Amino acid sequence: MLNKEGYATIAVVFIFSIIVAYGASFLPVWISYIIYAALAGLCFLTLYFFRDPERTSPVDDSLIISPADGKVVLIQEVNEPEYMKGKATQVSIFLSPLNVHVNRNPLNGKLEYLKYYPGKYLMAWEDHASEQNERAHFGVKHSSGMKMMFKQITGFLARRIVYHVEEGDQLKAGERFGIMKFGSRMDLLLPENVEIKVKKGENTVAGETVIGVIK
What's 107's DSSP letter? Predict the structure, then answer.
């Protein structure tokens, strides 16, 4: 299954490949074969990037599940003044260009806060990426009254953030809400009453990996 956000990019890549392949047909055979192979690789990688596999999310309202595929690169205590307005544990997940880039809701709750920030394109694993890069911040209130925030953050290659939710929406854990294109990062900011269940260096699967448990 392919994510619909990739249809336009896929179409452009395939049309470009057909045009270049036609031009290459007039070149010496060994050169044209090299070009054909490169174009086939480009088309495959484009399709691979926009893959959108089905996921089975755990049915437990007390769980915070991963919003992204990737690797946990940072776990640290921070102050979150924007929505939670207090201490939080930041869990940062880095998405390489080879990871699935479709993002999923990390918990059930009401989306009370949403803000988009234009910005730079630092390497996504750098600490300052969460403060300076292009990003979108989502503040969610759980039915228990607990507040948490998650952030889509662009990386050096990622140049576009896409999301399909609005303030006031009721989010369901594990459902798709957006995508980040070509390498990026997802931050979760969790309050003190959430027990963190992942460690730095661990790989995560969107919609399936348990990031934390509400105590």
Answer: S
Q: Does residue 130 have an active-site annotation?
A: no
Indicate the CATH number for domain 63-214: 2.70.70
- Contact yes or no for 10/50 (Cβ under 8 A): yes
Domain boundaries along the sequence of the chain: 4-49, 63-214
Q: Which of 17, 57, 130, 184 is catalytic?
A: 184
Cα–Cα distance between 152 and 185 in angstroms, integer? 6
* pLDDT value for 46: 87
Give this prediction's pTM: 0.85
On the CB side of 14, CA atoms within 13 Å amount to 9
Percent of the chain with pLDDT over 90: 72
Q: Hey, what are 47's tokens?
A: 């399709």
pLDDT band at 160 (very low <50, low <70, confident <90, very high): confident
